[in-house]
Amino acid sequence: MNDQAAPATLRADVVVLGAGAAGVCAAISAAREGKHTVLIEAGPMPGGELLTGMAVDGAVNAHGEWVVGGVARELFDECRRLDGYIGALNDWRLIHYVCYDPEVMKLAVSGLLAKHGVTLLLHSFVFGADAHDGHVSAVHILNKAGMTRVEAPVFVDASGDGDLAVLAGARYQSGEKGQFQPVSIMFRMAGVDTPRLLDFVRSAPQHFALGESEAIRGGRTDAQIAEALREQGQPTVFLKGDGPLLAKAIEQQRLYPTALIMIQPTSTHRGEVCLNSTRVANIDATRTLDLSATLGSLTQQVEVCLAFMQAEVPGFEDARLSGLAPRIGIRETRRIEGDASLTESDVLRARKRPDGIGRGCHHVDIHQDGAGQVRIPVDGGGSYDIPWGALLPAGVANVVIAGRCVSADRPAHGSVRVMGPCMAMGQAAGTAAAMLRDTPGADDFRTIDVKQLRQRLRANGAILEGPR
Length: 468
Ligand SMILES: Cc1cc2nc3c(=O)[nH]c(=O)nc-3n(C[C@H](O)[C@H](O)[C@H](O)COP(=O)(O)OP(=O)(O)OC[C@H]3O[C@@H](n4cnc5c(N)ncnc54)[C@H](O)[C@@H]3O)c2cc1C
Fold this sequence. Notes:
Bound molecules: flavin-adenine dinucleotide
Helix content: 25-40%
Low-confidence stretches: none
Largest sheet: 5 strands, parallel
Number of strands: 23
Radius of gyration: 21 Å
Oligomer: single chain
Strand order of the largest sheet: 7-3-2-11-23
Strand content: 15-25%
CATH topology of the largest domain: FAD/NAD(P)-binding domain
Shape: globular
């Protein structure tokens, strides 16, 4: 570390805090508008959960219609160019999700950030801000070079936890009554025999979650759905915690209590899938000591799950661990109070609105302790608009939020937290930040004309109307 008395100062047009799904899209969107954009990330690599192997949910509705475009599609196009794109698949349960190779996504994210001239500050933690009367003039970061102030007229908070909004004085809710969705660690297995796995679904559909929304089921029997999965030919399979296979294994303590072992393809070349199953619930992940203490349990669960898959799930006999997420995945911390708030009714009724700046379509999806999980589909398998006001922290002028910390009630958060809508919000936030920077004398995101913002978003490929 240097021993300068005064911290160094950097200046930018737009500062984006957090390089997860939302922050990456925000930074690219601000930079492509010609703004000097600094993207600050505590970790070693931009991309967040985009890099862990999970599919992108909430970008394609239950009818297979895309509801998120723009930067998200550009990232998928890059994955396709680099031979790491599988595509939008029907899970024959509730949704379509977009699958790709997370190793290739690393190239896509870093490549697009570089192409648009985003200045990256990795290994840099924002621990403070110059904030007065709801107006932020600089953030304070700590890294190997010591402390630095990064000044800008406008900020995007895509930290997942709403760190900057809170530093600026925003109010928030955290989980609900001490309950938080579980933290989990994702992992991948390669060498899966997909036809054998899909034959197993066909022969024993009772173990799997199938056709949970009528928009997906369409009057089919479980046997017909299992057949459709087989025809799709990809391991898009959800072993349910209350199905006989998992329930018995949990009861006999061959498996930890869990709602699911969700299997999604990551690489057809490697015969590789991502598994979403591990969990430790009701941890406030903003308490770093508590979060860190879960790692041992989560990795122990990975070991248990690997052995279970190899021993008990046809198709996994010869599969091996091929990747472990580089961080503990966090589903839920703070929901910032915004000028507007997305509600459960907005989500479930697929509400469209004139001030929408992006869409979501994922079901209300609240993982709970043990084997519990709430899953409520969006009416008719459609999509809902995210209101612009949900990105504006109440009482804060020049900080816009995007991603997991968006203003929403808890059920709505259970839907909008997934990566498709986070990417759409990121694009909206970055675009709005560039627009505010362009407006002489303006220092409050509320001066942005939402019609003009929507026009700018459409021009850059965002989807604001069309799909159900
Ligand atoms: C186990 C699990 C499974 C999931 N499954 C799916 C799925 O299948 N499909 C799907 O679409 N979604 C899924 N989700 C949800 C989704 O991954 C996240 O909600 C989403 O990625 C959030 O994106 P974000 O950009 O808002 O936040 P994050 O990805 O949390 O990114 C925030 C970034 O900000 C950085 N940061 C935070 N604070 C600071 C600070 N003070 N200084 C500097 N940097 C900071 C962090 O390091 C992080 O990289 C899952 C989540 C989990 C945990």
